[in-house]
Amino acid sequence: MWRGDSPKAHPGVSLESGTMAVRTWTALSPRAQQRALEIAPGAMTWTVLLSPLIVGFVIRFNDPADLWVLGLGAVLLDAYWFLRTAVTVYFVWRSLHELRRVEAIDWWAECEAIQLSEGAPGPNDITHCVLIPTYTERYEVLRATVDALVAQHYPDQLKVCAIITRETDLAGCENVARLRRELGHRFRAFIHIKDPLLPGIVVGKSAAMAYGGPVLRRHCDELGLDPTRTLITDLDSDFRLHPEYFAYITWNFLHVDRALTSIWQPVPVFLNNLWRVPAAVRVMATAATQWQMFLHQHPERLVMFSSYTMSLKLLTEAGYWDSDVIPEDSRFFWKAFFRYGEQLQVRPAFLPVFGDAPRARDYAATHVSQYNQIKRWAWGATDVPYVCVRLLNHPEIPWRLRARRFRYLMFNHLTWATLPLLLPIGGSLPALIDLDYSLSPTATALGLLTTVILTMTLLNTLVLIVVDRAMCPKPGEWGRWRRLYADFQLFLYPVVGLALSVIPALEAQTRLMFGAYLEYRVTDKE
Length: 526
Prior knowledge:
Layout: H1 6-27, H2 30-62, H3 68-103, H4 107-112, E1 127-133, H5 139-150, E2 159-166, H6 170-183, E3 189-195, H7 205-222, E4 230-234, E5 240-241, H8 245-255, E6 262-269, H9 279-296, E7 308-311, H10 312-318, H11 328-340, E8 345-354, H12 363-378, H13 383-391, H14 399-426, H15 429-433, H16 435-438, H17 441-459, H18 461-471, H19 480-488, H20 493-514
Parallel strand pairs: 1-2, 1-4, 2-3, 6-8
Antiparallel strand pairs: 4-7, 5-8, 6-7
């Protein structure tokens, strides 16, 4: 081939290769395409985890003196983790101050002070409907959740409570009947939805909401409620809303742009039973709260988690929840995203919603329950195939927005299952591969630098302890030393997070990769 022909040959080869790849992909059956996309998250994760080991042995068998490259990579990774942790702590601190500011305001008084323009809806036109799925929940837990709705600083005639139980859950049906007798008069309507568990569903919260959503819509129509002036809150059965929540959301609904295509996410705080669960579970509950506080400062990354509020119009037009998935919150986000595109706004609600941390019959079962809960959250990796299939089919959504949201999705699942595993072993890996290198001055210097950076990273925990004290006050009867002991348990996070967050996430992605699909398990919170 003439030298002058080569520049023209390469584009043709690339184009032909791309065309062949597209043809190969489109020739696959839909099921084969689905499986390929399900394999992708786990394959990427295992590639990242195994790459340092493979690279290390390649260097070892070529020139062991170059293992410093691997050590330097570990230092850079540790430095990135330090900066990421420091930034996270800063934004968690900012969210704490915003939470305190918002909690101090009488939001119904703010609603009543709104100067209405002619024809615009006012606070007395906005009805809040709460949809609560429940299964095997004790009466006392469900009663506390409904009591929190009764205690809302909001008119009773503008509140609707709807509870979903399975038709076969006789104890649950009796609990709802009892709550209706005792508290039904405090709502405009108290609705009991009995789920028959239709064929083809994946039994769990999402399937219950998928059945209950349309039923609630029919009840709202019978009540004469306007979908553009009715707000729906997806509420876990053990979650208790802040007394100002309805009024706060109403005030925001009446003030923000694109209110009808907005979803509000409160800050989940697992305070209800926090001081009755083991230390490891407390650490995980605190970490989950503080991560949500960080995301509240970055609405462009925020995705609904567990309990959230939206207009009935949005819920209907997005097509309700899906009945064949486990993570109902993130999947509903993507349904709404592909329906509304850049019109969709996930907005931070700077008020806490108080939930239960996992608590089972004994110490060991509680940790197993926590592990399974995190694994269920990590099953959100199933969103990757769902999103990939639809990403190119919505050119009406700006490609930068699609790319950014997809990048966050992949980055979150990838780093969740890899970074905390790489951090503790990255610096020591070169020394483990080659003993002679471990005795070199370079190895000693890089190892010391890694230790210093990780120690500085851990010191950020002191700020998180202050945040935790403000968010989760300890029982009044506890003495000083017991309080300090509980504070410093947060330093256990590197170990606890590895066992109860990273490993469950890795298992979830690996199961998805091999087609070992997860079944929904109700988290024990007795």
